[in-house]
Specification:
- With 219 residues, the chain is mainly alpha-helical.
- The protein has helices at 3-13, 33-52, 54-57, 63-84, 92-117, 128-144, 152-182, 188-191, 195-210, 212-216, and strands at 23-24, 27-28, 60-61, 125-126.
- The chain has one domain.
Length: 219
């Protein structure tokens, strides 16, 4: 009953090719392996940020943590480029692991970048040990996904987490872009907009762009 709902979210932004997706309990996940990794990495790291106060304090990575995030996140780009170029073959396990790296990197950097855009004080920090431990935990979960083939519970949990991760990813990235757009505008109204209006505007714009693939089918 819930599968069509999950799939409708995936359809908006993912090709959903069966060969590039995991099957759990006979059900294809709503996102391909790479997108599943991105959304799971983002939601996992975002939850960690929330419980450790990184969203509030800023969570600025030190130089080694930043280097780790850049290197690990770019493995997804490298994997995608080399496979699409026909230089090598890849598989779903590689796709989900590299996707986890990218999603986690974006979530870890967002609180700090948001503080920078807001010109606010950054009080928190991310050490290389903290980043490394987080990524190791995420990778362990990624490697375990193929073993969930007979678990209907894990199908629903992964589907829900990836859908929520997709929505949160889109909303927070739109939030950062919105802040960048109004950052240099001198109007007091624009510089200090109503938070409810801002959230509503961002969410509406996100939904419109996010659903372009669905809307195009009716044009």
């Amino acid at each position: 009953m819930l599968k069509p709902i999950y799939d409708s979210f995936g359809f908006c932004s993912c090709h959903q090719i069966c060969a590039r997706s995991f099957l759990i309990s006979g059900n294809q996940l709503p996102f391909c392996a790479r997108c599943t990794g991105i959304h799971l990495g983002f939601i996992f790291a975002s939850v960690y940020n929330l419980f450790t106060g990184k969203w509030k304090s800023g969570g600025r990575p030190d130089q080694w943590a930043l280097a780790i995030l850049v290197l690990t996140s770019q493995t997804m780009v490298l994997d995608g480029f080399t496979s699409y170029a026909g230089l090598r073959d890849t598989d779903n396990l590689t796709r989900v692991i590299t996707g986890l790296s990218m999603g986690a990197a974006v979530a870890i950097l967002l609180p700090w970048l948001t503080k920078v855009v807001d010109r606010a004080e950054v009080n928190g920090s991310y050490s290389w040990k903290e980043v490394s431990l987080l990524l190791c935990v995420f990778y362990i979960f990624g490697f375990a996904i193929p073993s969930f083939t007979d678990s209907l519970v894990m199908y629903h949990l992964i589907s829900i987490a990836s859908v929520v991760g997709q929505l949160l990813f889109a909303f927070l990235c739109f939030n950062l872009l919105f802040k960048l757009l109004i950052n240099n505008i001198g109007s007091t109204v624009v510089q200090n907009p109503n938070p409810v209006f801002v959230a509503s505007f961002q969410f509406t714009l996100m939904l419109l762009i996010w659903n372009l693939r669905v809307l195009s089918g009716y044009l």
